Amino acid sequence: IDAKSRKSFNINRILKEAEWICANGASDLAVLDPTFNSGPHYLTVLDALIDNKYKGKISLQCRFEMVRELFLEKVTQLAANGAEPVLEFGLQTAIRNESKAIHRPNRLDKVESVIKELHQLSLPFEVSLIYGLPL
């Protein structure tokens, strides 16, 4: 996903909102952007939550193929500081031939690698399988 293909908010606004969320004791935060871990500032946002000592549950919608080591380090740091991160992944299908037939290939090697790393780090995650084929 190219960051130019979506509208991004000003990072200063986002950082102020992260500070406000932490200062006001929000206990359950959901980042409803399946491309959260692909934008230009996602690590900065996580740093803001870490710096402001966010302690609640935080659900982050992510894409397997865009998970990087530094992202997992930041999520692990959030957890170590008392937050309850949950990574949410959507997957069109886990069947290779089906993904080819609908022209939505998943890099299952990457998916499996990330899942293994999440288990090693004891980071909770969810996988939503999408039923039904696109038209």
Explain this structure.
With 135 residues, the chain is an alpha/beta fold. Helix content is 41%, strand content 17%. The protein has helices spanning 11-23, 42-51, 69-80, 96-101, 108-121; strands at residues 28-31, 57-62, 84-91, 125-129. It has a four-stranded parallel sheet, covered by helices on one side. α1 (11-23) packs parallel to α2 (42-51) and α2 (42-51) packs parallel to α3 (69-80). It is globular, with a radius of gyration of 16 Å. The chain starts with 10 loop residues before the first helix and ends in a 6-residue tail after the last strand. 15% of the residues are buried.
Summarize the structure.
This protein is 41% helix and 17% strand. The chain contains 5 helices and 4 strands.
Supply database-style keywords:
alpha/beta, globular, single chain, 135 residues
**Major β-sheet, in short?**
4 strands, parallel
Based on helices, strands and strand pairing, what is the structural class?
alpha/beta
Which H/E pattern describes the elements?
HEHEHEHHE
Report the strand count: 4
Query: What is the end-to-end distance?
Result: 21 Å
Strand content: 15-25%
Shape annotation: globular
Tell me roughly what share of residues is in helical segments.
40-55%
